[in-house]
Design a protein that fits this description.
single chain; mainly alpha; 2 domains; two-stranded antiparallel sheet; 2 strands; about 65% helix; elongated
Length: about 220
């Protein structure tokens, strides 16, 4: 799915590249740009900042969210698309300019960016995927220092475990510690040692601060 966060970054990057805000003129153009007054406000504040929390607070079903966004977000997105076309049709923006290239980016990804208006359960953004990719990029830089292919493979496994823990709210250090201390149980029942469920099988031990494994299969 297209990312509104990525689209916003495109506008900012193109505009900043065209007019570096290091002069008074540059700052004035930046503050009066469509990024601040139009695009950013519509996408960030109204769609994500206002409509998103309402859907969560009211515990709407995917179908209810779809109707909600079609009613409230749909007109905003339609005005935005019309504004894009107007810039080129009335020659207000040069297609090859920084802002023009940002608009073109939005137009080329419009079907994906507006998927939440047509498909139930479609998210307003895919920031979770973006953050996951950032982890992979960071790990790729660190991987330059692995001496062997096996070491790099182990690093890949740890990266996956660490980010999975973050996504499900598990303490990374505590989780890896429990895996080390319950190696035999882990080998016997790996499905009980996932970051999102391993705590269900542990009884806290006040003496050591770690958990005692409760084997559901018995002794």
């Amino acid at each position: 799915m297209g990312s509104r966060q990525r689209a916003r970054i495109q506008f900012k990057a193109r505009l900043m590249k065209t007019v570096p805000p290091t002069t008074v003129e540059g700052i004035e153009r930046y503050l009066s740009s469509a990024l601040v007054k139009g695009i950013g406000r519509v996408l960030a504040k109204k769609l994500v900042g206002r409509f998103g929390p309402v859907c969560r607070e009211q515990a709407m079903s995917p179908e209810q969210r779809l109707v909600y966004h079609q009613t409230r977000s749909g007109p905003l997105m339609q005005k935005l698309e019309e504004w894009f076309r107007e810039q080129f049709a009335e020659r207000k923006v040069e297609p090859n300019s920084g802002l023009g290239q940002a608009i073109t980016y939005m137009q080329n990804h419009w079907a994906k960016l507006t998927l939440f208006l047509r498909q139930p359960a479609a998210l307003l953004d895919n920031n979770v995927c973006g953050r996951a990719l950032e982890k992979a990029i960071l790990h790729r830089k660190n991987a330059l220092f692995y001496k062997t292919q096996n070491g790099a493979h182990v690093g890949d496994l740890f990266m996956s475990l660490i980010y999975t823990c973050q996504l499900c709210g598990a303490n990374v250090f505590a989780y890896l510690t429990e895996l080390q201390q319950h190696g035999e149980s882990l080998a016997r029942s790996p499905q009980q040692w996932m970051p999102w469920n391993y705590r269900d099988y542990l009884t806290p031990d006040p003496g050591t601060g770690t958990g005692v494994y409760d084997d559901p299969s018995g002794p």
